[in-house]
Amino acid sequence: MNKHAAWLKNELDQWTRDGLIDDSTALAIAARYPTRRKVSWSHYLLSALGSLIFGLGIILFFAYNWADLPRIAKLFLVFAALILTHGTALWFRAKRPEQTNLIEGCHVLGTMLFGAGIWLIAQIYHMDEHYPTAFLVWGLGALTLAWAIPSVFQGLMATVLLSVWGLAETMDFRAVHLSSIALVAIGILPLAWWQRSRALLLAGLVTFIGMAVLNIGTHLSFSIIFNLLFTTGLLLVAASGLARRSAFPGSATILNVVGILIYGVCLFLMTFMTDFIVDVYLILYATEDSLKTATALQWVMLGIGSLVWLPVITPAYRKRLVNDPSRTLRLQHLLMFAALLVLLVSNWGPERLDVDVLSLACNLILLAHGVLMIIRGTDLLDWKQVALGCVILCALILVRFGDLFQSLLMRSLAFLFIGALLFVIGHQYSKRRAKEQTHA
Q: Are the C-beta atoms of 353 and 345 separated by less than 8 Å?
């Protein structure tokens, strides 16, 4: 039971004793806030780590005399280890379902032994196979268990293994590998949603986006992946509003944080408007067909992003989904849409606007974001937003330091401005907080 549920239970008991509410009312209130069992990640991690070390010990023990064992004995040990570990986990699941740490530990050990068995069988039969395929089979085994049990830890292991598979294919064999990206999208992300796991959702999103960046950015075009990343960030921010009203409201935070992080980094890079943003160029081993496909995908994503964000900037969306009447949030959304329009203009045909004009527009948008975050954070007494807004302003001024402030006098005035600005913001935040505490 978490601290909020414990507090509510104590308060309900006290209200009942004081005669403020009756037992039926207390039960009705408690039913509105069901207690969810809190996952003990520290215990799970210790169990998983212990299983991993134990499994390595078993592997090394048999490896000591592995060469002297007959082939049939080797195969028997491999399959017996898998049956023993997963069978033990299934027995505990049926007889002692409360032993979740032990059950997860046995399954983790079984998955580790499954991976070791793949390599051992390949060695027994002297298979000279395409080595990333082993990580694919290993990852598919973990993913199958993740859906069958179901298990978030198996899903995390599958995410890591599928990432290694995709990285090996992309980096060692110089190939655009979309299969690993698709498998993460259809295997990991739906599992995270089904299990209501924010950790698995975050791992799946990072893996999916990271693999896309690696494949398209390395093998095709940096400008194309930049446009795709920017649009993906905005789509995640828009999806977070819908997620708050979904069966998995906890996903809204993950979607919003990942989306804003991607959008913020891309907008910061757009303040420079370097060639890799506004110009498309090929890497040596990219084919003409793959470039056409990626370019079409880029424009499809930009079009979808524009269509999705048209209703986002309307007041109806804010009232219906975001449930936040503040004007600053709508202005933030308008700025995001304006940045999307700047990106569209920068890619629109050969007769693009001057790069300096686009760069100035991005600088102003980023500056407005920082100011609005400070205002919003001060109004809501959210020090995180205030701090992030201050970081944005300071970073923007310092980055433009070498571009705009050539003389020593102008540079000194820039530092004086930053210091005075931070002092005023801190004073206003403290004043607002003291006022709220006085009224409370």
A: yes
